[in-house]
Amino acid sequence: MDNKVMKFSPAIFIIILICFFLPFINITCQGEKVATLTGIQLVTGTTIEQPSMFGAKGKTTKVEGELMALLAFISAIVGLILSFLKNRKISLATAIVGGLGLIFLLLLKNKLDNDMLREGQGMLQLEYSTGFWLTLIFFILAAVWNVFIFSKGNKIQIEETKNQTKVSI
């Protein structure tokens, strides 16, 4: 397998991890931005100071870490580690981890939407920001790319077998 092709997979997971530091969601109330949370804040939890009228200090609200955000983040870390291993079978495992990260991200979106409907009582809305969408796209890319690497590995092994060259991978 071409070494340049194999180096692309770790880069995808590094980009995913960087995207967790970008804004993931904006919480708005009647079109006014109330808070912005990054992916890392969704993983670890944070406190949000709600603005109040006339410049007085608003109340603070604790936002607990989200399990699905944590699982997506862990998927990115595991995918990064696996992508450094140069084995055809490992690329399939890396693709599965990328797919799991995508699923966890979609489950996170579903949970946040449901929580906002229930707790926001129609006053608060969620807008998904650049970090969320880039992370979603790169998890898809990681899964597809590693399936491609796995399938290319199968073709290389078959071609070498036809030429009666014995290769063990």
Care to describe what's here?
With 169 residues, the protein is of the alpha+beta class. It has one domain: Butyryl-CoA Dehydrogenase, subunit A, domain 3 (Up-down Bundle). 63% of the residues lie in helices and 16% in strands. It contains five helices and five strands. The strands form two sheets. A three-stranded antiparallel β-sheet has the order 2-1-5. It has a two-stranded antiparallel ribbon with strand order 3-4. A hairpin with a 2-residue loop joins strand 1 and strand 2. The longest helix has 33 residues. About 3% of the residues have low confidence.
Number of helices: 5
Amount of beta strand:
15-25%
Walk across the major sheet and give the strand order: 2-1-5
Structure summary, number of beta strands: 5
Question: What is the molecular shape?
Answer: elongated
Low-confidence blocks of residues: 156-160
Q: What is the mean predicted local confidence, pLDDT?
A: 83
What keyword list fits this structure?
169 residues; alpha+beta; Butyryl-CoA Dehydrogenase, subunit A, domain 3; 3-stranded antiparallel beta sheet; two-stranded antiparallel ribbon; 16% strand; elongated
